[in-house]
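Researcher: Let's do a round of design. I'm pasting the structure tokens now; please hold your answer until I've finished.
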């Protein structure tokens, strides 16, 4: 376990009764001399107790630059309580602190590590803040900071202050009130692939698709998909198919002439839900506590009033990131000068299992999707 920014080291001391068999490294931003000068006898006592328990103490550790200021190790769990830039910091400065923190953490954690960061109510910017929830521009937006480095928020719970001497208010030895503080738990789960085709060929072990293909002795390359509709939720947009003739013989209750039929029904039985994104992940896969979403529009000209079939392109370039495709207006606008019709689609991006940052979704919508549509002959405007 790694503890970051532990003020006078009282938090690490409070963990000892419950973590006797756990190897702990604790750290502070101050040098040893600065720590003793700031916290006096409390720090001296805490250092002595921790050393008696063989806790490794590291000084002058910058949480935003861990590779250069922390010993070279990988940790199963990281705790950082109430990070702050010091003084009456600006929102932008604390957002940058969190962003740099998660970027730095990638170098010292394992793929399965838990990252636990505690904040005061209203700082995090998630629905867990409840009545303390602030406007989007007035919180630290911790979920976005984490997602930019591939971490997902999987749990928010009340922070326990038992046995913990709360000090460090505005970088000083003063105590502060945080009985309503919230602990945010993150896991490393970067977004792997946008393409639905790629997702079908690289499904995770234990997922319904992987289990089905193994049980039926079907090679993954035999799986493909067909588009069902232009509009709707992700679950409605496509059906998974077995495209290989030989593979169709190995599938249960399937005649040779039916090898292109959808297998969604069998997969959904294995999955136990109609959410098709769950077909690609094992049952115990970590879910995002509050999946972020973003909606972006894309408009195009066509020669007819018929709704253009953009789903194949979107599934290929944005696949698992898509949540819903809607049409902005029931009828297209007709330009009498150009004799063309304008169609506007609203695309919502979201993912229940992997990190989608606002930055990523914006790039996906304004660069990847637009470039893919243009390459496929759609006249965008």
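Researcher: That's everything. Go ahead.
Model: Designed sequence:
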């Amino acid at each position: 376990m790694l503890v970051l920014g532990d003020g006078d080291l009282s938090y690490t001391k409070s963990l000892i009764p419950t973590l006797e068999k756990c190897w702990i490294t604790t750290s502070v931003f101050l040098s040893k001399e600065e720590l003793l000068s700031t916290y006096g006898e409390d720090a001296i006592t805490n250092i002595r107790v921790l050393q008696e328990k063989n806790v490794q103490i590291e000084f002058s550790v910058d949480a935003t630059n861990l590779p250069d200021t922390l010993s070279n190790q990988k940790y199963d769990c990281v705790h950082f309580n109430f990070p702050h830039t010091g003084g009456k910091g600006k929102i932008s400065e604390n957002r940058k602190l969190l962003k740099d923190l998660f970027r730095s953490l990638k170098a010292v954690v394992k793929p399965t590590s838990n990252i636990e960061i505690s904040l005061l109510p209203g700082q995090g910017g998630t629905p867990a803040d409840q009545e303390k929830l602030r406007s989007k521009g007035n919180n630290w937006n911790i979920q976005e900071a984490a997602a930019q480095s591939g971490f997902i928020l999987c749990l928010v719970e009340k922070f326990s202050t038992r046995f913990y001497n709360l000090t460090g208010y505005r970088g000083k030895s003063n105590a502060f009130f945080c009985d309503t503080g919230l602990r945010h738990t993150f896991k490393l789960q970067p977004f792997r692939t946008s393409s639905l085709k790629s997702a079908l060929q690289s499904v995770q072990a234990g997922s319904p698709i992987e289990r089905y293909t193994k049980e039926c002795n079907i090679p993954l390359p035999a799986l493909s998909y067909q588009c069902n509709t232009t509009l709707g939720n992700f679950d409605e947009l496509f059906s998974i198919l077995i495209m290989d003739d030989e593979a169709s013989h190995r599938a249960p209750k399937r005649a040779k002439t039916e090898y292109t039929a959808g297998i969604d029904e069998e997969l959904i039985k294995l999955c136990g839900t109609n959410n098709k994104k769950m077909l690609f992940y094992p049952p115990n896969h970590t879910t995002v506590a509050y999946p972020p979403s973003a909606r972006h529009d894309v408009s195009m000209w066509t020669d007819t009033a018929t709704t253009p079939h953009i789903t194949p392109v979107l599934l290929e370039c944005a696949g698992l990131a898509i949540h819903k495709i809607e049409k902005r207006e029931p009828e297209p606008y007709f330009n009498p000068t150009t004799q063309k019709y304008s169609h506007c689609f609203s695309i919502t991006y979201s993912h229940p299992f992997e990190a989608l940052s606002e930055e990523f979704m914006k790039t996906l919508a304004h660069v990847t999707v637009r470039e893919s549509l243009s390459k496929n002959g759609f006249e965008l405007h």
